[in-house]
Amino acid sequence: MDNDNKENFSQTWWKWGDSNKSFHLSDYPKLKRFLENKWEKTLIEDLNLSEDDQLIEISTFTLNDFQDYYQQLEKSQFSNENIDRLKYGFGKGYQDALNILTNKNLIVPDFVLYPESTEDVRHILKKSEEHGVAIMTFSGGTNVTECFSIEGNRKWVCALNMQRMNKVLEIDDISLTATFECGIYGPQLEECLNDKGFTMGHFPQSFEFSTLGGWIATRSAGQESGKYGKIEDMILGLKAVTPNKTIENRDYPKHAMGIDVFPLFVGSEGTLGVIVQAKMRIHKLPQSHNWVVALFKDFESGSKALRTMVQSGKHPAICRLSDHSETKMLSLLSNSEPNGLKKYFQNFMKSYLSKKGYDKPCMLMLKFIYNHTNYTTDIKQVKKLLKANDATILPAYVSTNWEDKRFSLPYLRETLIQHRILIDMFETSTYWKNLMPLYSNIKNALDQKSDYFRNGGIIFCHISHIYNTGASLYFTLMTSQEKGNELQQWNNIKEIVTSAIYDGGGAISHHHGIGKAHRKWYNQQLNNDERSLMQAIKSYLDPNDILNPGKLFDET
Ligand SMILES: Cc1cc2nc3c(=O)[nH]c(=O)nc-3n(C[C@H](O)[C@H](O)[C@H](O)COP(=O)(O)OP(=O)(O)OC[C@H]3O[C@@H](n4cnc5c(N)ncnc54)[C@H](O)[C@@H]3O)c2cc1C
User: Fold this and answer.
1) C-alpha distances in angstroms, 421 versus 79, 293, 477, 520?
2) CA 285 → CA 190, 201, 318, 372, 525, distances in Å?
């Protein structure tokens, strides 16, 4: 499979997703009413973008400067058009959206190159080093951690667009491995595998627009990680190109041959080299699945049930335990107002549950995936285990609303931003023993330290990605945006939440990565010896610091 994504790229450059799809807050009447009541104001779409308004720095890089690259590249592999510089200059975080929508002088790459082979990448890195051009590897562009913010005094910055390197190189149906070029998008990758009866099983919420290279470079986690693992559990080997070297490991199912080098590139966020190929584990397509949905009286008893379940050997592919605030939010996400029998049933359930002590219910959704169809006993055991932890089992179809919407919810996020709502996500992981204290630590820190948040902030959370030893917490945070003060407001909240995560013993990120957004805390947690070791590796692979300069590694 080999296609040129440049022409197919239908993402809106300044917001999430397919440019042919539009989402309106009026499609979510219950949510709109809830937010308007909360903030006592009518929500209107106040932030929009007229592309003509967009001012970007004029680049001094001209076609003449590109001549040196010609030896290897075609002219069609180069662009310095403003629209391309904008398209490949941003990620998809709240801060990216804010920057685009409120800043009239955007700093973007000087030009874009589209390598089509490993040789192209080698040539580009070599020439870029000679010319002092910084390389920002851009794959899907869906990172939410300011991976593409341009800092420092650079002569020129090149966005290295990996999307044309999207071939499936090998599917080994005997060993269950597959090798891909790393610019391949999630849907392309799965389609090729599915056609042959396989899956890789990596489905982040950004699946439709993110790529294998981006997943590896950011240590991504898909929603079915309980079955298939995180990306670092899936990778067997890779090929990476640095300005002067090519690193490629010989791979084996398992080995005892000393230290592996390739894991250095997992999570390297474009700072050590460009990952051009990767060999991944694949699986036979599952034959069946089953959802289990339950309500708990509180978040803590739900968390305890999850721990007991996973430690007793039951591993759902998808796990999502929402705290009470998120459970309430999920009920606001339906597109229609309940009426007639549905409304009667909902009210009946509410009062029934309230009588049973579920005043602040927390909803759990579990998806189990099987390679056989004989799962009844397993599901029964799971339900029994949950009930022993005070759960009430709900009909499995309750999960449908979330499952149907899971890839379209990001569109809603952008719509909310356009209505001047600050909405951002924070995620972490910690050991089970520390999970509830960390949860409270983060919520308390916001309540106690942020005026921006105290006056009308909403925070909700779910537990996902559960392991024998611990789990991840995923927070969504919303508040009314302070016009004219948007960036300061976000910085204040970001600082408080991330510090609370760090001080509370949580990982700075479980799957979003570091970028510029988390660099400060990433560097804090490295001791001097670790930092020197990392710097030595960086200096060896990228001596002139042209690869994503300023990311991961503290420049000071
Ligand atoms: C709505 C939404 C939902 C999301 N949901 C999830 C989720 O469920 N799970 C999750 O893990 N993440 C999620 N993310 C975050 C994001 O999708 C992931 O970080 C993803 O892995 C990024 O992949 P990408 O191809 O878009 O990479 P990019 O954004 O293009 O790049 C990310 C970083 O990796 C580097 N990089 C990219 N490709 C290469 C390469 N080939 N070689 C070297 N460096 C490279 C870039 O330079 C950059 O520093 C979500 C983001 C959004 C906006």
Assistant:
1) 35, 31, 10, 26
2) 10, 9, 16, 10, 40
Element at 156 (helix H, strand E): strand 156-161
The CATH number of 288-406 is 3.30.70.3450
The mean pLDDT value of the chain amounts to 92
Nearest to 280 by CA among 156, 399, 177: 177
pTM: 0.95
Question: CA 341 to CA 349: how far, in whole Å?
Answer: 12
Task: Tell me the fold of 168-284.
Answer: 3.30.465
Does the beta carbon of 159 sit less than 6 angstroms from any atom of ligand 1? Answer: no
* Segments making up each domain of the chain, as ranges: 3-27+48-161, 168-284, 288-406
Q: 230: Cβ below 6 Å to ligand 1?
A: no
- Spacing, Cα 231 to ligand 1 middle (Å): 12
| 273 has a pLDDT exceeding 90 | yes
The C-alpha angle 287, 290, 295, rounded to 5 degrees, equals 165
Q: For the purposes of burial, counting CB atoms within 10 Å of the CB of 243, is it exposed (0-12), middle (13-18) or buried (19 or more)?
A: buried
- pLDDT range class, residue 105, cuts 50, 70, 90: confident
Protein residue with its CA nearest to atom 15 in ligand 1: 143
